[in-house]
Amino acid sequence: MSEEVIVNGIVDVPQQDVVLLLEAGYLYMELGKNKEAEEVFQGVCALVPHSEVPQMALGHLYFSMGRFNPALKANQRAIEFNGTSAVAHASAAESLFFLRRHSDAMEMLDKAISLDPEGSAGDFARSLKEAHELGVFG
Q1: Which residues contact 60 (CB under 8 A, 6 or more apart)?
Q2: In whole angstroms, how large is the CA radius of gyration of the chain?
């Protein structure tokens, strides 16, 4: 029988419970219940304030709503918590493109690619670079 993994936050919480909360937030998001999704993600951020994962979830929510400044801020907080997160760098770059901060976005993409040269986050970053080169972001 496998041992339960505990996430140390404000209170110790089983990792499975944190995952279920995040999944509930994403379900709300899929259902177009953005206020509820934001409340869930903010609650998880408060529960595990040292983790980049709920910050990135907030970033995804804000980005999907076209709220690019809050999305960028959430992804920047994720990077503060985990500077080696290639997906956080690539997600921040995506927001930067929509904020017309192309040179900053390109720096973030280069960082994401260097952190994950063979993985999915690196692929995402390369796709964003290619889209930029094709003029997709104006």
Answers
A1: 29, 71, 91
A2: 16
Residues linked to residue 6 through DSSP beta bridges, in sequence order: 14
pLDDT tens, residue by residue, 49-92: 999 999 999 999 999 999 999 999 999 999 999 999 999 999 99
* Upper half-sphere CA count for residue 72 (Cβ side, 13 Å): 16
Q: Which DSSP category does 3 fall into? A: P
Q: What is the pLDDT of residues 32-47, one digit of tens each?
A: 999 999 999 999 999 9
Taking CA 96 as the corner, what is the angle to CA 94 and CA 102, rounded to the nearest 5 degrees?
Answer: 105
**b (16+ CB within 10 A) / e for 59-70:** bbbbbeeebbeb
Residue 137, classed as helix, strand or coil, is coil
How many residues comprise the chain?
138
